[in-house]
Design brief:
The chain has about 230 residues and is mostly helical. Helices cover about 45% and strands about 5% of the residues. It has a three-stranded antiparallel β-sheet, with helices on one face. The chain is globular.
């Protein structure tokens, strides 16, 4: 489900999350003739914001993740043994397939935790208004211009062949779990990463949030508009 198309669903969900006490307060305010329309709307939006603030990153991410049929996952353990105990997901969702392919070409040699971290960056971009609002759109942004894309494997001129089925099955499971929103955040909101053996110029301007395996992770600086 795309982020911008899911705003109404998010508003509905957070209204329920606010609880009975807040619902009662909202009803009371809406029936008070001394409160104008502006005051009523402020009360409603203020309580929705309060509910959003209490949701963790995983809960929010579930509102923007593609609609993937998820089984019972339980607590996430960043190990190959834990992943091996999960069934391979059916690759019938476009977002799941795009994310699995990105993890295969970008991070199949990484640790399981490192693969989850790369998946998190992609989903952080989906949730950001600065990027496309779906997984495939984020991954394919800039594709078609050699070395001008966001993820090198999509524009390096090499064919995208999956030659390691076992590795693809593992990253497919990582993608599946990541889209469920049950994994704890690892990168503190990172939207960028690079391997340790390169030093892109943008990395000097972005705050580094984590180092996991062979990747450094960064959060895009917030740009403040001039008054």
């Amino acid at each position: 489900m795309a982020l911008r198309n899911g705003i109404m669903a998010l508003a509905t969900g957070v209204a329920l999350a606010a609880g009975a006490a807040q619902a009662g307060a909202t009803l009371s305010a809406s029936n008070d003739p001394s409160i104008g329309l502006h005051g009523k709307l402020s009360a409603l939006f203020g309580q929705e914001k309060s509910a959003i603030d209490r949701l963790n990153d995983g809960a929010l991410r579930r509102f923007v993740a593609p609609d993937v049929a998820l089984g019972e996952i339980g607590d996430v353990d960043y190990s190959r043994q834990w992943l091996a105990g999960l069934d391979a997901p059916a690759m019938d969702d476009a977002g799941l397939k795009c994310l699995a392919e990105a993890l295969y070409f970008e991070a199949r040699g990484e640790s399981v935790k490192g693969q989850f971290a790369v998946a998190e960056v992609i989903l952080n971009r989906v949730a950001s208004p600065a990027y496309p609002d779906d997984v495939c759109g984020v991954i394919k942004q800039g594709t078609g211009r050699k070395y001008q894309c966001q993820f090198t494997y999509t524009c390096d001129g090499h064919p995208e062949r999956i030659g390691e089925p076992a590795a693809f099955e593992q990253v497919s499971k990582v993608a599946y779990v990541s889209l469920s929103g049950v994994a704890e955040p690892l990168t503190d909101g990172a939207t960028h990463y690079h391997t340790k053996h390169v030093s892109p110029s943008w990395a000097r301007k972005f705050p580094r949030t984590a180092t996991i395996g062979v990747h450094h992770f960064y959060r895009q600086p917030v740009q403040v508009a001039n008054p």
